[in-house]
Each structure stands twice: as structure tokens, then as C-alpha cells.
Amino acid sequence: MLSPSEAESRAAALVERAKKAGADAADALYIADASTGVQVRLGALEDVERSEGEEIGLRLFVGLRSASVSSSDLSDEALAALVERAAAMAREAPEDPYSGLAPEDRLLRERGPDVDGDDGQDPSPTELKARALETEDAARSVAGVTNSGGASASAGRSVIALATSHGFVRGYSTSGYSGSASVIAGEGSGMQRDYAQHSVRHYADLDAPAEIGRRAGERTVARLNPAKLASGAMPVVFDPRVGASLVGHLIGAITGSAIARRTSFLLGREGEQLFDESIVIRDDPHRPRGLRSKPFDGEGLPTAPRNLVEGGRVTGWLLDSASARQLGLEPTGHASRGVGGSPGANATNVHIEPGRLSVEDLLADIGRGLYVTELIGQGVNPVTGDYSRGASGFIIENGRIGPAVAEITIAGNLIDMFRRLTAADDLAFRRAVNVPTLRVEGLTVAGA
């Protein structure tokens, strides 16, 4: 795997080849990944996996025509053939008046912020195995756990570099570590399964194996002997590990491509108050050690923290250069891409600011409701906002979390759900999208 500076040189050289081949403009993206993962089950080593790979992608423009190609072979012969193939494809492609590189005057010219995304650690497979075994031991030691789905520990590193014919050349590296466990409680038809997982950029930030395992075991045992919940409209409270999905639906609806194609349920609602005015949703690509932190976007524009929702209102769309041109707007530094194809747009580290109520106060006035810890299926219509998903969790009775419940469905419409959303004060930064406990009024719940 190349160093960031070597990757920058490789991407810049490919862009220069494209220009010599007659390209009017071009950009190249290099991505390399190396990872080691260890899986154990029932106290025995089940799998050790080591993967390494690198790939480079070229986007080449001839007038308003473009083509994208990629290769995992970085030899001179392969890259020469890559440029030749891209040039031939571009000349035959249809014209697209919105395609092109990001505006030259908007490119990041400084080195950009240090997001502290690579700690330089390289734990050995032996160390990862010991972590995985300790994680599973802790999970299996929880009273009521009867079997194991296994535990894992992994470590990896990535290098990303982007070069454009406008003179932008930048690269950076990231590290990543994770631990997880999945166990089973109960017997026969009464068995239940749950898990715990943690991912970080710095090895020192990873939860202790015993903590991950204990959390997996306790979550699983708590799901035993699910009760019946009568159907009806009621408050639904989302645990932070599943509440983030609501923010995900919002992000999908405010991307430039969804707006330009008129496939977003938020189309025409610019400036409308969608949430309570106390709700703030923030995107922070510079959060130190954030799982999606980065100094520049997929087109070389500088990234910057921004409130996506402020005062309950969406502040604007997430735009790459193509969707910005199509909408007559400016790109926002949210371009996201892989080595193949053109950029799209996406957010980075997103969170809902904590509210004023404790979780206890958030639940206090609920006579009968549902606390959701798992969502199943993808029953969300991105055009209408209609929402219907399978769920599991716990019944809320008189302000307290009661017995487990499973195999139920919750339904509503995202517009109504956003308007009726209340956030607790328990925000913790543990994921790429982080939310406190969230309460949504008046969802339709179909019990088992």
C-alpha cells in the first residue's frame, strides 16, 4: 500500500497521462485498504482474514462528454491502456451539460485540517484473537446466554488520494478498529439473539472486550419471553443505535441528486419547519477521530462543519458539482465517490444536538408505548416519505420500560414523524451518525 504522498504522485501522474492523451479535463482517485480480522466462536478460533487491495479510477472529459474507468493493476502498461480506453469511451459518450470538475476557484488550496484519523497502530493477529476471545467469554458469562454466534476483532488502514487537472493533489490516511459479539439466549422456539459492536479510528478508543461482550449478553437476555402488544397509535421511543436511521432518511432526501431528479419527499419544502424549532442536526467532517472525518470532499472542495437542520428547518441541499449545476446552485463540499463513476453527495459525521429532557423524563408521561431497539426491513418510500418497518424492543408502561416485544410493525410518514420528534439529553459520539434517545408521537403500531 502506498503512503499518502506516493498515492498523490500516482494519481497526479495518471491525470497528466490523460491530458497528454487529449483530455480537456480529468481527475483520478486512488484508494487502498489493508485489514486484518479475527473471528472466534465457542472459545475456538474460527477464521483469520488478511486482505489488501488498491485501485485507481480515472474520470476523463472531452468537451461535455465523459467516461469513468478503474483498475486494480497499477503497472505502467495497465495505466496506459486505462487512459486509452477512457479516451475512446468519452468520445462516444452522450453530452452532459452538467458534468465536469468542481469549480477551480473553490478547490482546497491549503493542506486542510488535521482530523486525527490515523493513529499508526498495527495490532497483531495474536492480539486481535485475544480481544475476540475475551469479548466472547464476557458475553457467554452473562446468565441466560446459551449459545454464541461468535465474536470478532479487526484492524485496518486506508489511504485516499485525489488529483485533478485543475491542479488539486491531496491525500490522507485513516485507521480503523472494531470489536463485536453476537450471542443467543433461551432454548428452542424461545431463543433470542442480539449483539454489541464498536468501531473507532484510534485503537485506544475501542471499548474494552469485556464491556462489548457484557453488553451483547445483557441485551440478548433482556429479549427473552416477549410479551404481546395490542395494536394502536402510541408514542414510539427509538434507542440511539436505531434512531440514527431517521437521520439517514433525512440525508437521503436532501442530497442534490434526489432533488434534481424530483425523487425526494422533501421536494418543495425548502424553508418549511419540519422539526420542532429546538432540533439542530449538525454535519461535522472535522470532528477529531470521527468515522467519516475528512479534509476535502470527493471533488477536492474543502469540507466544513454545517447545521443541516437549524431552528427545525433544513438549511439547504447537499450538493456535488453536477447536481449543483443542474439546480443552479453552488456545490457544498459534500461530494462522495468511489473509484468508479461520477461523484454523488453525502454527509459525514452527523448528530442531533441533545435536548433538555433526561431519558427518564422523556418516558415519564407515556402510559403505553414502544421502546425500539431493532428495526427490520427497508420499508421506506423516499418519494412520499411513507414509513413502515418491522421492529423489536420493549413495551413502555406508565413511564417505565417493561417486557420485551418482538415481531411488530411501526408505520407513519417521515414528515409527520419529524414534526413530532423530541430528543433526550443522552447524546454520545459512538457512530458515524449519532443521536440521543428519540421520541416520536402517534405512530401506528401493529402488535404480534
From TrEMBL:
Highest taxon of source: Bacteria
GO BP field: proteolysis
Pfam family, one: PmbA_TldD_2nd
Entry's Gene Ontology cellular component terms: cytosol
Domain Metalloprotease TldD/E C-terminal residues, every copy: 231-447
Coiled-coil residues: none
Metalloprotease TldD/E N-terminal domain location: 26-90
A GO molecular-function descriptor: metallopeptidase activity
Ranges for domain Metalloprotease TldD/E central: 120-224
Region Disordered: start-end pairs: 92-126, 286-305
Biased amino acid composition, Basic and acidic residues: 103-114
UniProt record similarity statement: Belongs to the peptidase U62 family.
Protein name per UniProt: TldD/PmbA family protein
Source organism (scientific name): Sphingomonas parva
